[in-house]
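Hi X.,

You mentioned you wanted examples for the new student's onboarding notes, showing what a folding record looks like when two proteins sit in one file. Here is a clean example. The first protein comes first, with its sequence line followed by its structure tokens.
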Amino acid sequence: MGAQDQSSSPPQSGGEVVRAKPETERGAAYQPSRRSPEKIARARALRSGDNQAEAILWNELKARRLGGYKFVRQMPIGPYFAGFACRSERLIVELDGSQHADSSYDRPRDEFMRGEGFSVLRFWSFDVLKNKRSVCETIFAALEGRLAEDVVAADLRFVFAARKTGDSAL
């Protein structure tokens, strides 16, 4: 091999191509995940345990199917997990079974979410199974800002969080 060949050829080791090391091995600062491994594992477990109503609603919300709004499932917010969340509009949608009737757990949870700048929209799981279109129309109304105050009805609860000027999406 001549001097020209050595200077223009990439280094070789036993016929293998030498690849660049990942950024973390090159000495770049370590960037931890926004979420702990425990919260990630818990969110995954919650997603895999969907009931029929949650599966039906997720089919309507995923892939920006509802008005182009992006939703995620089981998003951790503080010590809680939001069933369905639209980060850009700061809206959480929860489906409740009969175990949530007059639940003392849900009120402080909803107030925590409101304190974090999220509005919370709660439906009965039964309503998704029997009247999916109406549920989706109500979610869409909340996304568009047509629901702008707290609402408590037999079939829904909406905890409104006024958006602050300059709020940025998560």
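Then the second protein repeats the pattern, sequence line and then tokens:
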Amino acid sequence: MKIATYNVNGVNGRLPVLLRWLEESAPDIVCLQELKAPQEKFPEQAIRDAGYNVIWHGQKSWNGVAILARDREIKEVRRALPGDPEDEHSRYIEAIVDGIVVGCLYLPNGNPVPGPKLEYKLRWFERLTAHAAGLLQSGLPVVLTGDYNVMPTELDVYKPERWVEDALFRPEVRQAFKNLVDQGWTDALRKLYPNEKIYTFWDYFRNAYGRDAGLRIDHFLLSPSLDSRLAAAGVDKHVRGWEKTSDHAPVWIELADTAV
């Protein structure tokens, strides 16, 4: 099974890119972030015509998450992260696909710092960590994937010294990510490529993609039963070079049917 995550940075404006990549890559499950479309403006028919069932949680102008499944049923579990009923941001959606719990997330950016946006990000991280603990305790196979807006280590950012005061690289944000992983999750890309420079995002400015001045902020966290089935992982970096593309590239993993 191939599972992918992709921050599309506007699902309608990038629809040709998304459809081209879906045809080329043919993932079984896809998590999308940053739809930037209200619920009624999501391009449902185009996605279904591409062979995917889909659920989504839209929001006008900002945020938005979706889960796609090729020739598979999607059983929605929730479309908001527990812990704050007043939080109206469309940043989390969860479903069961082929017996796997799939949590698709778009974690807050947190800039500028210091300030309320960083505080919101850290609170959101706390809610995610609490929810993730319950998912682990369930014993079910779980994948938590999406745009975490955090570079966990210096290996995940092209010039660490330039990002020290950024909300994506602040010590308390990196510690929040570590606290989550330390519950018992596996960072899929780092398991397979522990020492390699891997990026998933390149800014539109200053020829960042051409210079390979990137960040690794899109992650796959796997529960123990899925960790044992992890067979491959990678980044479709070339998609970032397509015309009118997102500033993120799709990230994917492959799971074997049994432990590898």
